[in-house]
Automatic annotation (TrEMBL):
Transmembrane segments: 27-54, 98-120, 132-151, 157-175, 215-233, 264-285
Gene Ontology molecular function: any one: ATP binding
Domain ABC transmembrane type-1: 94-286
UniProt keyword Transmembrane helix, yes or no: yes
Keyword entries, A-Z: ATP-binding, Cell membrane, Membrane, Nucleotide-binding, Transmembrane, Transmembrane helix, Transport
Family of the protein in this entry: Belongs to the binding-protein-dependent transport system permease family.
Limits of the ABC transporter domain: 325-573
Topology versus the membrane: Multi-pass membrane protein; Peripheral membrane protein
UniProt keyword Transit peptide present: no
Protein name per the record: Dipeptide/oligopeptide/nickel ABC transporter permease/ATP-binding protein
SUPFAM superfamilies: MetI-like (SSF161098), P-loop containing nucleoside triphosphate hydrolases (SSF52540)
UniProt xrefs under PROSITE patterns: ABC_TM1, ABC_TRANSPORTER_1, ABC_TRANSPORTER_2
Source organism of this protein record: Leifsonia tongyongensis
């Protein structure tokens, strides 16, 4: 099958996973990252090499140059009301400004990150105390506090910046605490505890790694805030007038604004550009640190990637099918712009009333097919080609048809019953809402139908269960509720993705029995996605075996178990039997 020229070409063979470039390289390669870093580097060079760059010392006056305009001889940006060179004063003022911002950063990181780590990891009293201090600090009026500090310490910018660092520490505290609370609940942290790692090592290895991204991103914004506040404090006259900083240059220029209006431009421009670059760099850092490196395809790229030219894919399937998949190809974009194809031209015909098992090892593409028929592939997935036929209509040719069919003509039974029910609403409210979304009936009629159906799927006291919340029912009941929801709209086909995997063996058998009965009673076709050959043997009429995004064998269930044709199917059956033998022996 040939592909039209595409902006994102498709690759069917899985390449070696590409290592992502180091963060600095990625930042340099990002145009916005490169420009902002270049400007910030320029600022740092100004600060570090001030004695070499500045043409004059900061406080030297030249009475002949009072209020000299920009580009006067010897005064690139002009001179102030005392005849001091503005460019030199800005250059000399860069270092104290950077140091002030760094003091804010160091103090706030030391307090906020440490506090957040401890509070989030150990929780309990530590967290309560941390939250209390955070609330207290956040309620303090920052600028008033800095002015009050002036009465105690005099013009002491480092002390003012350290206090500002304490005032902004809660932003780190809250951020880090929230991330750590999430991480400490992860299974890999439990696993680290079980293997005997100490808390210090768990924090050092797992937790610190998780918070590094958010902390780096936040730091860019905190430095920007530090520069702004320092300029503000100096502008208010709370800094040391003998030591130039961007804020004091700004203050001098403002005091002289009627005689030399252009004088305020230069410090304002320098402060604004530096803050702007830090904020933009923060945004670039967020994009780089929090993304997977894979850029979502544009609508145009998606359109170009789709190939609908294959005639066999376009032909309306014949026969008594409930759903027919033709030449389905699904892919995912990779960081280098290629699309990695994971389902390679799959054909699957499910006849009316047939229960069709889709088996295969993990990652073989079973869920991609199930999700394609429902139109619920992850948003980054690209349907590269193929068709999905329901009653003579190609659902893939018109996304609206797919949306209309979902829930009405194609029902879905998911794998995790509990996580598919909203804990905030009663069972009845959720079922009624779902049914009325697809069927134009009154609430009373919906309730009547649903209560009858709940009884049918084996719920003993439907009226009671209708009023219950999901946490009040068992996993098996929850799965029956979801099956009730899936069949309530009278669909022609049900797609069940590992519908019994999360249930214990006895409940599994009951749910399988229920699905079989519903299929018979209602002439319902089903696609059963499973890796369990026992489920296939118990439930299915026909089975398709998948491997690496292809169907390698399709057969009636009895034929497949008695005389599998493909080597892979034989291996799959053999491995399933050996698991059964081990389970029986143990
Ligand atoms: N969001 C995604 N981004 C990139 N690749 C994905 C994504 N989801 C699935 N894949 C890839 O698609 C392929 C098929 O995955 P799929 O989930 O359909 O397999 P499966 O047979 O259903 O496996 P399992 O039984 O484990 O659910 C795999 O190679 C997987 O890595």
């Amino acid at each position: 099958m040939s592909l039209r020229p595409t902006t994102a070409s498709v690759r069917a063979v899985r390449p070696q996973p590409r290592r992502r470039k180091p963060l600095v390289v990625r930042l340099i390669m990002n145009p916005l990252g490169a420009i902002t870093m270049l400007f910030l580097l320029f600022v740092v060079i100004l600060g570090v090499f001030a004695p070499l760059i500045a043409p004059a010392p900061p406080n030297v006056t030249d009475l002949n140059a009072v209020n000299a305009p920009p580009f006067s001889p010897g005064h690139l940006l002009g001179a102030d009301q005392s005849g001091r060179d503005v460019f030199s004063r800005l250059v000399w003022g860069t270092q104290p400004t950077i140091i002030g911002a760094l003091i804010v950063l160091i103090v706030s990181v030391a307090i906020g990150v440490t506090g957040g780590l401890l509070a989030g990891f150990f929780r309990g009293r530590l967290e309560a105390v941390g939250n209390f201090f955070t609330d207290v600090i956040m309620s303090l009026p920052g600028i008033v506090l800095l002015i009050a500090l002036y009465t105690l310490t005099g013009p002491n910018i480092p002390a003012a910046m350290a206090v500002f660092g304490i005032l902004v520490a809660p932003t780190y505290f809250r951020l880090v605490r929230a991330v750590v609370v999430g991480v400490r609940g992860e299974l890999y942290v439990d696993a680290a505890r079980v293997v005997g790692l100490s808390n210090t090592r768990i924090i050092g290895r797992h937790v610190l790694w998780a918070v590094r991204g958010p902390v780096i991103i936040q730091s860019a914004f905190i430095i920007a805030a530090g520069i702004g506040i320092q300029a503000g404090v100096d502008f208010l006259g709370l800094g040391n007038p003998s030591q130039p900083s961007w804020g004091t240059v700004m203050q001098d220029a403002f005091n002289n604004i009627y005689n030399n209006p252009i004088g305020v431009w230069w410090p304002a421009l320098l402060i604004s550009l530096t803050i702007l670059c830090l904020v933009l760099l923060g945004n670039v850092l967020r994009d780089e640190l929090q993304s997977t490196g894979v850029k979502p395809l544009t609508v145009r790229q998606r359109r170009h990637a789709v190939d609908r030219s294959e005639p066999s894919v376009r032909a309306v399937p014949r026969g008594d099918y409930a759903i027919a998949v033709r030449g389905l190809r699904v892919g995912y974009p990779e960081s280098d712009g290629h699309i990695q194809e994971v389902v390679h031209g799959v054909d699957l015909v499910v006849r009316k009333g047939e229960i069709h098992g889709l088996v295969g090892e993990s990652g073989s593409g079973k869920s991609q097919i199930a999700f394609s028929t429902l139109g619920i592939l992850p948003k980054e997935a690209v349907t590269l080609g193929g068709s999905i036929w329901l009653d003579g209509e190609d659902l893939l040719a018109d996304p609206k048809r797919l949306v209309q069919a979902r829930g009405r003509r194609i029902g879905y039974v998911p794998q995790e019953p509990m996580s598919n029910l909203d804990p905030s609403f009663t069972i009845g409210a959720q079922l009624t809402y779902g049914l009325r979304a697809v069927k134009k009936i009154s609430k009373v009629e919906a309730r009547r139908q649903l209560l009858a159906l709940l009884a049918r799927v084996g719920i003993r006291e439907p009226e009671q269960v209708f009023k219950m919340f999901p946490h009040e029912i068992s996993g098996g009941m929850a799965q029956r509720v979801l099956i009730c929801g899936a069949v309530a709209a009278d669909p022609e086909i049900i797609v069940a993705d590992e519908a019994t995997t999360a249930l214990d063996v006895t409940v599994q058998a009951e749910v399988l029995e229920l699905l079989r009965e519903l299929s018979r009673e209602r002439g319902l076709a089903m696609i059963q996605v499973t890796h369990n050959l026992g489920v296939v043997a118990d439930l299915c009429d026909v089975v398709s075996v998948m491997r690496d995004g292809r169907i390698v064998e399709e057969a009636k269930v009895d034929d497949l178990f008695e005389s599998p044709k493909e080597q892979y199917t034989k291996e799959l059956l053999a491995s399933s039997r050996s698991v059964e033998i081990i389970e029986e022996a143990s």
